[in-house]
């Protein structure tokens, strides 16, 4: 038996950045080491937005090379997670037909309403339980068909983003459940592809890879990848391929009376359920039912998150967060409130101008300094979280006495406190690397080191020390909520 430490390798690819991480089990539970971190840039060409999947793959290979060189470490398995909805068209010869289109590409603007002339909105929700967003895979596919997209027309297979990376690693084409559940192509009850919706976009189940669930083996590294990384035939495991599903698996909660907020480029707030919630109220509130690990459903709502701030920071340069939060604290409270989910913030050329234009349209003071802009963003996000949190309580009938904030946004102490103030419940923040932890924990389940969601969470709780925020000044936040533009 090898005396090397048994390690799991996670490739965690987000919509703005990616990272590779090694994980193992120490005396107090799971431990992590970040191997590499890299940006994920949108490519704009010919008026279209693409993801550079080859650059992402190169970075994954580089992470594997570095991990393979770690003394005393044996990589037992590999898992890949990414953002949702986007996909790659694969030709009959197994080659990618072009770079995958990005969900922020405006070609899907209005795509949902165009599709509803084929299958009515209520019928789509009754089948899928997925919230309507123009960039969902279903609507992307319909828009591509209407435009006679050449890559789609020639495609032999479609692979969602994490499945495309695992294909490049193993040569095996699969469709992992949690990532497929974001597409609005699955029947939420059967957890398989909905044939009527596939037919509506000219596809069949055979257009996708072998269907797998989190914890199943995809394959092993190809000889080519083995040569490039210095590794052997390491297994690649289908983890929760959707990054939010991986993150939620790592929430350090006990029991069920909690909500989660996965805070990053997007903010995703929800609860776990045993079955999809597809009531009229859920449909009217535009909540989504996405797949989770170990048979769970993630009833949640997508909220535009730190994307708004990051687009402003791209203009301001590398201003430290503590400077920005200090300027925000010095600004007048509740001077301007935006709706973070307004379409004008999806992918504007100038985010600062988009915020200012929104405030003008809604007859609010225009935030004209950096501090006022940051305060506007953070207060608006906290109030939007409260708005969605109230809807979750209504839909679930649960009290929801605590909100777990996970992901990179859990390090934002000011926003965490304001979220506690706005929601009126205790906020427990951390772990920041929840997605990588969930990815690794699912590999651990496949290896027999953990069992079920509670088993994973028990191990996470033993290893992390989250921060706690108690609500204060709730009255002024109630007043602000009443005049929020959503």
Written account of the structure:
The chain has 486 residues and is of the alpha/beta class. It is built from 19 helices and 21 strands. Strands 17-18-16-15-19-20-21 form a seven-stranded mixed β-sheet, sandwiched between helices. It has a six-stranded mixed β-sheet with strand order 3-2-1-6-14-13, sandwiched between helices. The protein is globular. The N and C termini lie far apart (60 Å). The model has no long low-confidence stretch (mean pLDDT 96). It comes from Leyella lascolaii. This is Rhamnulokinase family protein. Its EC number is 2.7.1.-.
Short structural summary:
The chain is of the alpha/beta class.
Mean pLDDT: 96
Query: What coarse outline follows from CA principal-axis ratios?
Result: globular
Question: Hey, roughly how much beta strand do the residues contain?
Answer: 15-25%
- Looking across the biggest beta sheet, what order are the strands in? 17-18-16-15-19-20-21
Structural class assignment: alpha/beta
Search tags:
kinase; alpha/beta; 38% helix; ATP-binding; rhamnulokinase activity; 486 residues; FGGY_N; seven-stranded mixed sheet; six-stranded mixed sheet
Secondary structure: elements and pairs:
Elements: E1 5-13, E2 17-26, E3 29-39, E4 42-45, E5 48-51, H1 53-68, E6 73-82, E7 87-90, H2 111-115, H3 121-128, H4 137-146, H5 150-154, E8 157-160, H6 161-170, E9 174-176, H7 177-180, E10 186-187, E11 192-193, H8 195-200, E12 210-212, E13 216-220, H9 223-229, E14 235-238, H10 243-249, E15 258-263, E16 266-273, H11 280-284, E17 288-291, E18 297-304, H12 307-316, H13 321-330, H14 351-361, H15 370-396, E19 402-406, H16 413-423, E20 426-429, H17 434-446, H18 452-463, E21 467-469, H19 474-482
Parallel strand pairs: 1-6, 6-14, 9-12, 15-19, 19-20
Antiparallel strand pairs: 1-2, 2-3, 4-5, 7-8, 10-11, 13-14, 15-16, 16-18, 17-18, 20-21
Helix pairs in contact: 10-17, 13-15, 15-16
Enzyme class: transferase
Keywords: ATP-binding, Kinase, Nucleotide-binding, Rhamnose metabolism, Transferase
Domain Carbohydrate kinase FGGY C-terminal: 259-447
